[in-house]
Design goal:
By secondary structure, the chain is α/β, with parallel strands linked by helices. Helix content is 46%, strand content 21%. It folds into 4 domains: 171 residues, Jelly Rolls, CATH 2.60.120; 155 residues, Homeodomain-like (Arc Repressor Mutant, subunit A), CATH 1.10.10; 121 residues, 3-Layer(aba) Sandwich (Rossmann fold); 159 residues, Rossmann fold (3-Layer(aba) Sandwich), CATH 3.40.50.
Length: 667
């Protein structure tokens, strides 16, 4: 129910009104038989009593499950898309008027609320059977030949309205604590032309971005940003048909500064360019002959009349104007005048057509460029789609964010991820997953045109094969990001940006090394360990000529430190260990490093995991074996978070550099 629905004033208006039921119909829609762009020939209640749908009235979208009542005014566009095998509903058409003798207050309220035209919807949680009995009886009486059926149906209709307002009244208390999805949808409707991200949308309703995203998708079937895009494009479609505004003006009006990007997005969603949409829909939308689009469900012969100025006879295929002949005369006169005027104003029209055509040409030129790029990986080759606009990242969020690729879905490796805020700010849907986990349903729902997945030990071929059924999929090495980001840049025509990112990072490393060396000297040694309850993991440096530095490799060879000699001994004794080696706590005093960086837990851990891990670390710090370590005695042991140290990428490594500088400089 919309916030502007004032219950007390609406009930007063309905009490004062004169109403007649015009038709009652029971309809069944099966999956695949969507009702599209049906223009209501009169004010109507749509009463759903079975099945699940996505439905909209005048582009106000909602979902229905079970008993649900929608209302729309005469001329409103109704769309119903079944989400279950069968959807059953009643259509109750009526006409309501205010008596001419109504008070000034009633007339003012009527003008304000337009009760017979306003779109709204109510889910019926309690009392559903009462509604069903009333409406079923209405249908039964309406189909009968009883001479007093109109009186009987009108009585039942008033009973239906009474039950409806009672439900709204009962729900009003519940709605004091508003559903965040309803708030978010209202905010989008009111501010669609503004810059909206998931973060700003959540902030506007004082709600968590991640929770809002999950609730929104659950209730509407789409993400908040996808819903925003649909709202903008639907508004644009209306402007194209109903105004002569130029395409670039409409783009700006609905929130897009780049007309060419707007046109590509419009074509992707509507199937045609803005210019084609304007041409096709203006040809179809001329209502001067009195036609109404028919339903895409089984038509039945009309049994009553819909009142309007000319008394159209109503059936489910449309209406027939009883004054069609006079309308045709008027139409021919208007057509002649239009042809005459067009001879004088052809220049302006040509300018509009030329502008639209220039955008069409740009789009067609882009679509005709069929050059392909192929990514090679350990599972084969993948043809990269040209200019992908919806990319899913599974474990490579750091790299993809650095290149600002058009992400629509990404994974967060554990709770409180260091990139969570950045992803939500860009409106990217996210899931919290553990290592190697993939939510295929979420990936499918994101409708990607390219999937990028981290190539790690847990990524087996079966995972890859399932993803390729959704969209072209490539694998990249997260640990070797400085090389892989350039490769990704080449595949996405972003090589200059990717190379600039790497060059900037190397400059940052050089600057950091100078800063750190000025403080610790040129021969300071370092060790990096991760502690657990009764063990310690000692991390190894990577070969000097390797671009793959692992997670902590840069601390050994890029920031002015040297590996502790004990680490080099362990590497010689364990030549098959690539990343590091486990040590008992009793061996920790063997580490003579000047500085030790220590972490606990794992990058994908939960808040509870981290609390437990840091608790274990606190207990270890009380042990004599820990206190005998030279770096501990000198106060040169620093705790860092596994959230970014146990991952790799431009953002993660930048934060590692900052951690080390802050530790040794005490800044």
């Amino acid at each position: 129910m919309q916030e502007e629905f004032n219950l007390e004033e609406q009930m007063l208006l309905w009490y004062e009104a004169n109403m007649n039921v015009l038709d009652v119909r029971r309809e069944t829609i099966r999956r695949g038989d969507a009702l599209c762009e049906y223009r209501l020939p009169a004010s109507a209640f749509i009463y759903f009593f079975r099945g699940k749908t996505n439905v909209s009235i005048n582009e106000r979208a909602s979902s229905t499950r079970g008993t649900h009542i929608l209302h729309g005014g005469k001329g409103a566009l109704l769309n119903i898309v079944p989400q279950s095998n069968v959807v059953e509903l009643y259509l109750i058409f009526y006409k309501g008027i205010m008596p001419a003798t109504s008070s000034l207050r009633i007339k003012t309220l009527f003008k304000k609320h337009k009760p017979f035209d306003s779109p709204y919807n109510v889910a019926i949680d309690e009392g559903a059977l009462s509604f069903f009995d009333i409406v079923k009886e209405m249908d039964h009486v309406w189909q009968s030949e009883d001479s007093i059926k109109k009186f009987h149906v009108k009585t039942l209709f008033l009973q239906f309205i009474s039950c409806f307002f009672k439900v709204v009244q009962d729900q009003k208390q519940i709605q004091k604590n508003k559903d965040p999805v309803t708030k978010a949808i209202r905010y989008i409707h009111d501010n669609y032309a503004e810059v909206i991200s998931l973060e700003s949308l959540a902030k506007s309703i004082n709600y968590s971005p991640s929770h809002l995203s999950l609730l929104f998708k659950d209730q509407t079937g789409s993400s908040p940003i996808d819903y925003l895009i649909r709202e903008r494009l639907n508004k644009a479609a209306n402007f194209l048909v109903e105004t002569d505004a130029k395409v670039h003006e409409i783009a700006v009006k609905v929130g897009y500064k780049d007309a060419h990007y707007f046109s590509r997005l419009f074509k992707k969603n509507k199937g045609v360019t803005p210019a084609q949409y304007r041409k096709e829909n203006r040809r179809q939308s001329d209502d001067s002959l009195g036609y109404v689009r028919g339903l895409s469900i089984d038509p039945r012969e009309a049994k009553s009349y819909i009142d309007n100025d000319y008394h159209y006879q109503y059936n489910f295929w449309g209406t027939v104007d009883m004054n069609t002949y006079s309308n045709l005369i008027r139409f021919n006169f208007i057509l002649c005048m239009a042809l005459f005027i067009s001879g004088c104003s052809g220049g302006a029209n040509n300018m509009q057509e030329n502008e639209d055509a220039s955008i069409d040409v740009a789009e067609n030129a882009a679509s005709e460029d069929t050059s392909e790029k192929v990514a090679e990986h350990r599972f084969g080759e993948t043809v990269i789609p040209k200019d992908p606009e919806r990319i899913v990242s599974l474990g490579l969020e750091d790299m993809t964010l650095a290149l600002d690729v058009p992400l629509v879905y990404a994974t967060l490796h554990g709770e409180n991820h260091y990139l969570e805020a950045k992803l939500h700010e860009k409106g990217v849907e996210t899931d919290v997953v553990g290592g190697g986990q993939v939510n295929n349903e979420a990936v499918l729902a994101a409708d990607p045109d390219l999937i990028i997945i981290s190539d790690g030990p847990s990524t087996d071929e079966s995972v890859y094969e399932e993803l390729t059924k959704i969209a072209p999929t490539i694998l990249l090495n997260r640990e070797n990001w400085r090389e892989e980001i350039v490769r990704l840049g080449e595949l996405l025509n972003m090589e200059d940006l990717a190379e600039a990112k790497v060059e900037s990072f190397h400059e940052q490393l050089d600057k950091a090394e100078t800063t750190i060396t000025d403080v610790v000297g040129e021969n300071a040694t370092v060790a990096f360990i991760r502690l657990s309850e009764n063990m310690a993991y000692l991390w190894f440096p990577f070969p000097e000529d390797s671009y793959d530095k692992g997670y902590v490799g840069l601390i050994y060879d890029s920031l002015g430190f040297k590996p502790d000699p004990f680490i080099l001994e362990m590497m010689e004794e364990n030549p098959d260990e690539h990343w590091g080696v486990q040590l008992s706590l009793e061996m920790l005093p063997e580490i003579k490093a000047d500085y030790i960086f220590v972490t606990a837990g794992a990058s994908g851990g939960t808040a509870e995991d981290y609390e437990e891990s840091w608790g274990q670390l606190a207990e270890i710090e009380e042990l004599q074996v820990w206190q005998s370590i030279p770096a501990v005695q000198e106060g040169n042991v620093y705790q860092v978070s596994a959230k970014n140290w146990m991952l790799a990428g431009p953002y993660a490594d930048e934060s590692k550099i900052n951690d080390v500088i802050q530790a040794v400089t005490n800044e």
